[in-house]
Each structure stands twice: as C-alpha cells, then as structure tokens.
Design brief:
The protein is of the alpha/beta class. The protein contains 18 helices and 16 strands. It has three domains: 7-138, Rossmann fold; 143-315, 3-Layer(aba) Sandwich (Rossmann fold), CATH 3.40.50; 318-446, Helicase, Ruva Protein, domain 3, CATH 1.10.8.60.
Amino acid sequence: MSISKGRLLIIDDEDRLRQLLARILQLEGYGVIEAATAKDGLRRLAHDVVDVVISDVKLPDINGIELTKTIKANYPAIEIIVLTAYGTIGDGVTAIKNGAFDYITKGDDNEKIIPLVSKAMDKAILQRRVLELENKLNLKFGFERIIGTSPSIAAAIKLAQRVAGTDTTVLLLGETGTGKEVFAEAIHQASPRSAKTFVAINCSAFSKELLESELFGHKAGSFTGAVKDKKGLFEEANGGTIFLDEIGELDHDLQAKLLRVLESQQFIKIGDTKTTQVSVRILAATNRDLHEEVAKGNFRSDLFYRLSVFQIILPAIRDRKKDIGPLTKNFVQYFATKVNKQITGFTDDFLQKLEAYNWPGNVRELKNVIERAVILCDGNELDASLLPYEFETVIAKTGNPVSAFDISSVEKLHIQRVLNHTNGNRAEAARLLNIGIATLYRKLKEYGLE
C-alpha cells in the first residue's frame, strides 16, 4: 500500500493492542512503525521520519508522559498522542504541558482515535513544512550564506552571531562591497525579530528631503506632491529590523531625528503633530571613518556613540585571499544554474589571476566578474580569457606581477577599468578620464586595447 497520509510510530508494550491499532491506521492509509519500549521508540525516531507518535503512559522503562517531554525537546515538529488505561485529569494536564497533542483513554472506539490522529497529522505536516521553509530561509539569508574560513571573516561572523540574539544596535564597518548588507540580513534572521520585516535603505541614494520622507513618512498635504499619508520605513519595519547603509552620508538634521529614534523609539512624521511609536532594531553600516567625520563636525558624536555600541569590522577580500577560491566556486555554481549552463569549475590560471588582483570593489566586484565570465563561457570551465580588461596585466607571462612603478602599466590598467565601468562606451570613458576622445583612441591603439 502506498503511504500518502504521513507516518506514525506506536509505542506500547501490549503487543496485541499495538498491532491492532497499527492495522487500523494502516487501513486508513498511514505508514506505521512499532516499538514496545520507550528506548526502542527513541531509537526508531533517530532513524525514521515520523510525523505523529502514539504512546502508552505505562511503559516498561520510561513513563509515557516523561517520554513526551523528551520527544518534544528533540523533535519539536512531531505531534504526540498519549494513551492510558486509567486516565486522570492530572496526567492529562501534565501530558499537555509536556507538549502532547492530546490525551485519550485506551478502549475508546476507533471513531475517536482516527479523527484525532488525522488532526495531529495535519498539524505535524504543517509544522514540518514551516521548519523546511525556515531552513531554506536561513540558507538564503542566514550566516550559512557567508562564505569564508579565514581568521578575519571567521572573527566577524562569530561577533555577529553573538550579538544577533539581542536587541543591541550594531555598526558594520568596512570597505564598499565587503558584504555589510549580507551580514545585516544574517543578524536579523538569527534574531528574535526574524519573523518580522527586514528593511534596508542606502542613505546616500536620496536627497535630504526625500530620505526624511522615506524613513519617517509624511502626512497628506505636508508638501507639494504629498497627496496622501505615507508610512515611512521605520513604521514598515515595526517589530523587525531596519538596516541603514552608508549612515555616514546622513544629513545633520536627520542625524538628530535618528538619535531620537535610538533613544526613545519615537519620531514625528513630516507634517504631523504627534509622535509615532515603534519597536525597531537598528543596524547601520558605513565605509567612512566616523571618528574622522565626528572630528570634522560632519557627524554627531552622540549619534556615533549610540550607533557604535557594538562594532563589527568586515575585512577586505585582499586580506582574505584564501577565501577567493570558495567564493568563486559558489558564484560559478549560482550563475551557471541561473543561465542554465553546465559549467563545472575554473582553471588554475583563472584562480591565480583572481587571487593576484587587488579587488577594490571586494566581494561585490568578484561576484560581478564571475557573472560576466559565466555568461561569456562556451565551454564547461572558466579560463583567464573570460576576465575583464584590467586582469590582462595583473600577472605577466612570466608569472610575476606588473610593476607598480611602471606608469604606462598603471595608465593602461586605469583606462581598462574605466572602459569596463562604462561597458565599453568610449565617449563616456573619455569624459570620466577627463581627456579628449581622440586622445583616448590614441592611447587605446598605443596599449593594444582597440
């Protein structure tokens, strides 16, 4: 018989009753396994997938009510129905407290046990699906997503894991592209607020007026174009977490407003007269030296001290070169799947050039380089010919790095980077380089970049 309704474990030392109950439930379409003792039942749970346990109270080795507590502690998604020959209200209350789905007296007819098993099975299967979704979510947004074993990244992960379970404000420091938002998402996902909203915003991407509206919301009519009330991101993130990226770019007036949120969890919307109360955890990030910004008067010292209760410094990829290989492997697998290509890996020369490069854009730049290489690849592995212009002079044919003092090499490399940035648009590259288009064409010919 095919099993379609779930799997049950019956634990009872009365063989005839256990076998009869097993047969009845098998006829209902359930998969059933049996155990005569609590110890045997726990052994079966360790090796078999089970949704519902039906256990007698009086077992030879362990009381069934205590067994319920043990099972729920180790297998929280399993539902347990407790059976007894002589039920008491006290036993029933204790069983439910220990996590039992229900408590039923032996000898009750099948019209009671079958619907009860059906309800317990529905709940167990739903809980299993929820756990599976949570596991997938953790893989997508949790610490498992952060790749690297070098001491610097391992230390950052350990700090983030320790602070995740608190409500403490965290300041993530590091160069552009080091993965500050990835860390922020992982901290949120490992926090008690994980079931609520995670909101991220780049503070440098908006003007002062627009950013204030985005963060705190506004009332209808408060300014031209405000035709209706709007919730801000702090209100959208109520109960959850807000991630303020590039916090060093925040305008002075907005710094004062943010300080009030940190101190009281309150703010006033644009055009409003009353305060809005929220419960939001704040994570912030910057690639600026905030100590220096405070000294210059660009950043409020009181806000800096409130934000930097717990600092985590994310290392640049050039400081953890041993992680480039695992990161590259992960990105190759991801992008190959995304574009439906059978790419199995990359050559040694490809990896050597990646490891020799300085990576000013850090992990984000590495990710972009691998995506480009995967798109261009016609074979089953990536090789050095698929790398952008700037990698051509990273390692000379002799295997030695290009001299940092060779001005022509430096100029060529810079032109290559700008062309890569503009996706080959030479007019735009000339504008960014602040040279004439004719001069750019001459240099392209001179350096063999045509």
